[in-house]
Amino acid sequence: MRLASISVDLDSLPHYCRIHGLPESMLDDRARSLVHAVAVPRFRELLDGLGAPGTFFVIGEDLESDPAAAVGMRASHEAGIEVASHSHAHDYALTRRGAEAILQDLSRADAAILAATGVRPVGFRAPGYTLNADLYAATAALGYRYGSSAFPAAPYYAAKAAVMGALSVLGRPSRSVLDTPRVLLAPRVPYRPDPAQPYRRGEGAVLELPMTVTPALRFPLIGTFATTLPRASLRQLWRTCRRDTLFNFELHGVDVLDASDGIPPELVRQQRDLRVSASQKMARLREVFGWLKAEREVVTLRDAAGRLSATV
Fold first, then answer.
1. Would you state the pLDDT for residue 1?
2. How many CB atoms lie within 10 A of CB 28?
3. C-alpha distances out from residue 27 to 16, 17, 116, 216, Å
4. Structure confidence by residue, pLDDT tens digits, 150-192
5. Which residues are CB-neighbours of 307 under 8 A, at least 6 positions away?
6. Could you give the CA distance from residue 218 to residue 155 in angstroms, rounded to a whole number?
7. What is the mean pLDDT of residues 84-94?
8. C-alpha angle 142/143/147, rounded to 5°?
9. DSSP per residue over 27-80, as a string?
10. Integer CA distances (angstroms), 215 to 25, 81, 202, in order
11. What is d(CA 271, CA 269) in angstroms, rounded to the nearest whole number?
């Protein structure tokens, strides 16, 4: 059994301002809604062309504040796309808020997704990929089938630390949070976590489906690199993961947006992948999706968890 899943984190542009220490006031209403208004239809087009489902990780407060986003998630659900939780407020410091506040946040997200789609989510991805015991306990209490937050990517971790340090020196600190280094030792394949230390194997009820990183170097195979690396390099990285039972390909809404979509120049300067044209990025993603379908069965993360739960 060799599976692939395509998941998209629908982080709206205000969250990128928070990452880069930029004022959210630079975003007009259209820019704030670009991920749901423009990126979601583009991903729907890519998935329709592939003839396979995907998983959208949506932020609950976006569904509450933007009726069009809720309509889009209802349509996506009806088209066979899984709509999963990416928390309610996408607070990068969610793991620092305490068990009760974490549970309240996730419960609010569940309610917003249920109101939009008619179905309660069964999967969760943490803001900023940061997981701890309190957050894992909340996913178990809410009856999730799986989480997909572990991201044991050493190059990503090092780059994130460097960028956060540089922004702090510049006087515009990032609101992102650097995870514990223990994440770098987390399994890179599906596993059952230890509830007290969810980056270690254990017997937790909620299956963890890490985002794909390569063996040895643990280079992240995510949308940002899929759309910007030379094709030959990307193809070689893909080949190193061919033996994995699950290829969990994680993307973001901005992976199909570019500067011409109306993104402020200040944000484009910081988010370099936005300088690549959306048409070029979509062409590359269409090609990578084709690699997945040629060698694997492409399923939602919900279905991958169901297939793998008895074997992990």
1. 75
2. 10
3. 11, 9, 25, 40
4. 999 999 999 999 999 999 999 999 999 999 999 999 999 999 9
5. 1, 3, 299
6. 7
7. 97
8. 95
9. --HHHHTHIIIIIHHHHHHHHHHHT---EEEE-HHHHHH-HHHHHHHHHHHHTT
10. 41, 29, 21
11. 6
